[in-house]
Amino acid sequence: MNLVFAPPQANRQRWLSTLKREARPWGLMAKLWVMFFTSLLLVSAMNFYAVIREPDMIEIDEIRNYPRETVKIEGVLTSYVRDPYGEGADRIDLQVQEIGGHSVAKVRWNVDWTNEVPPIGTVVTVEGEVSEWNGRIWLQSNGYGAIVAKEQTIEFTETKLVEVGRNPPSFANQSLTIDGWLSESLAPDVTYHSLYLMDNQVYGGADHLLYMQVEGRVMEWVEAGSHVVVNGWLQFDERSYRWRLLVQATEVEVLSQGETLYLDWEAEPYTLTYEVGKLVVIDGTIGSDGEEWWIEGDAPTDRLCMLPSSEDLADDIVGQSGDWGGRLAWSTDEAEVCLDRGYVEALQHPAGQFGDDLMTMKEVVEDPFAHVGNSYQFEGWITDPISPDYDKGYVGDGPGYYDRDTKLRIEFVGEHAEWIEADQAIRFNATVLWSESEGRIVLEARSWLLGEAPAPSMLNWGDGYNSWRWDIGKLVQITGEAVMDEDGNQWISRSGSDERVCLLGDGTEASQQEQIGEPIGWTGRLTMTEDSIGNSAQFCIDIR
């Protein structure tokens, strides 16, 4: 017989309570394990869905609405370039245009650069991530399957820029019908324009640029970014060593007008000069002191000159906030870039271009006092570099020392945000002045248009001081390895020798050099620093 003794009632309650307390942690751990495995299952399911989910097919002109998302587009291949920067990168850049439309998407395809690319005119499907940097937008596509060619092709009646770029001599000295997008606006009151024909509606997204000169007047504004077909004559310009397309204004057919550009207050002020002549929109509040008008942003330094229209004056819009549209223009009255909303003032050429009635500097020199006090349009070349914080220099009537007969003093009224390089072409409106203190002619420039900056001068290690000193202040290039000494100073060293030149940068160039592992070309401004204690001087390359 087994005897079981039941505990008293009080002890029994304590005993059950103890059992419950001891069992509770095990129940809690069981719940935690269930929650853990459930969350793990959910994460795995979400990752699996992300892998197998088919990206959305979107329109090409909607790409900017899907930042950092993986999408698909379909269009016709109009252009491509292998290894765009010639650095041996496994990358092919493509331009894909919407079928029957005018929008173009830039695609950066990370794949073996020798990989086969579909023929121009092939309809392709592109999968990639929408990437954006510094105002540029493109599709980042990776792997061989990111670009899929379809059997459909489109026959173009006009020549494509990529065809000219591959073999320009085959199109030289003959009439050419070609399509593309304009880098700048064409103004109806200007008889000469110089700009680029691009394979993308945005300058920063273009892979091919063809320099184009348009003679004659267009009937109405043709906006930057417009899709056009032009008939012109392709020739090699021996003076500037580049191909150019000569076009009459009547031979410009507009397929689609360019879109209005939205300005961002966070952009650097000097970048506005690149948008002169374009239709823009900016948000802000209107301000005025009775004479001058401006648009203010959120920050105290956000301010843009405005030229009000007659409607603005009649409606009394001071203090109103919103989006304000107009055309960016250089105002000679205000000596700055302004938003022109239709106000008629002393703005001779809103597009930043000039007429053809040029005065030569030689004519001024031959009879200076017959021209003093009058304003003319000149064309010339800056003789020496002019820094952004300096407003004086010299301009000559030839691109080089041996090519010019006349050199005059030039003074700029207003700011120029970047360096003006030696031998850089310039076309400007200026008043002829006579400086009694200096006893010479001075050209006071109030508006100007700069040509392309010349390529940097190549420095050779063995040339020495007598050769290098002529390039002080100019953009130069030299090949070498960046190293850092024990004091933290950086140098560009010639491989296999003790020759070196001081390097002025942000301090990271030496570490970057270690990653590259081979000599590279360094481009910067050649300067000279003197050591009064050691009675010596040294050259430096300033790449800042």
From TrEMBL:
<keyword id="KW-0812">Transmembrane</keyword>
<keyword id="KW-1133">Transmembrane helix</keyword>
<feature type="transmembrane region" description="Helical">
    <location>
        <begin position="32"/>
        <end position="52"/>
    </location>
</feature>
<protein>
    <recommendedName>
        <fullName>OB-fold nucleic acid binding domain-containing protein</fullName>
    </recommendedName>
</protein>
<keyword id="KW-0472">Membrane</keyword>
